[in-house]
Amino acid sequence: MAAKAAANAITYRSVASSMPAISGGRCRSSRTWNSVRLPRNRCCSSLRNNPADVDGSNSAAVVVAKDDKYGSKQIISLTARLYDYILSNVREPEIMRQLREETAAMRGSQMQVSPDQAQLLAMLVQLIGAQRCIEVGVYTGYSSLAVALVLPESGCLVACERDSKSLEVAKRFYEKAGVAHKVIVKHGMAADILRSLILNGEAGCYDFAFIDAEKRMNHEYFELLLQLVRVDGVIVIDNVLWHGKVADPLVSDAKTESIRNFNRRIMEDERVSISMVRSLSAFIFFLFDSYATTKRKYFDVKSFFVGYFDVKKLYNA
């Protein structure tokens, strides 16, 4: 699937994960090769003479640009071993571990964010000193619990979820973690809940928002949250890479197409400054004043968009 995601732009090579990063002219000269697996302690250039000399153990895909458009930076993809290493360096509170393990036995457990993703969300909340947050799509509450745990005692998280069964699990763990007083649970359709918050005069009152819900509703959620999140706030949108499907021209189902269209709209939206991050597969928006005061207040923003995982760059209009 990864190879499809980079069609016509980049190629994938596999390099033993224990090897140093590839460098030097002879390795760079191989950057247009097709995908192969390299044995431990072997240079990629060695395959010119021995293309069959490959080994599948401990391998990690390396993405290399075909031309100067993307430079010579090489990106290592996520192998099981590398991901285990990442998770071993996550500070996961015991209460979150318990929730994660209980959720793993439930239907739809794949919807839960991973510990490293939850840690990133919590860090973003801390970085901006967030007091009031919104989560669209709670499931069993793993990501919202991560956020609630780092909110100050006076903080507030509005948690929007339509599934009552999973929401009961979330509420139980909010209580168990001692953060239930920080969480306002909203059971229902997220778009309706967000509209009600706007009608209640809460536009511009929130610091942080996380969207992890129905993908075909992303654009509507985003527009509503642009009204609710204050200038200098942050909006994070999950699954914008959609398991790599958005880059595969052979995939054209309704959900994938809706995510592609949303990503394209954000790219072309002059109200937002963007960067896509592949680690979280999300967009992160840092909002700040930029437009003339003659425009409506909730459009008086320029936002910073981070898709899942690599680059964060904030720049003024």
UniProtKB/TrEMBL annotation:
CDD domains: AdoMet_MTases (cd02440). One of its GO terms (molecular function) is O-methyltransferase activity. InterPro entries: Cation-dep_OMT, SAM-dependent_MTases_sf, SAM_O-MeTrfase. Pfam families: Methyltransf_3. Keywords: Methyltransferase, S-adenosyl-L-methionine, Transferase. The keyword Transferase applies. One of its GO terms (biological process) is methylation. It comes from the Eukaryota. Belongs to the class I-like SAM-binding methyltransferase superfamily. Cation-dependent O-methyltransferase family. Methylates caffeoyl-CoA to feruloyl-CoA and 5-hydroxyferuloyl-CoA to sinapoyl-CoA. Plays a role in the synthesis of feruloylated polysaccharides. Involved in the reinforcement of the plant cell wall. Also involved in the responding to wounding or pathogen challenge by the increased formation of cell wall-bound ferulic acid polymers. This is Caffeoyl-CoA O-methyltransferase.
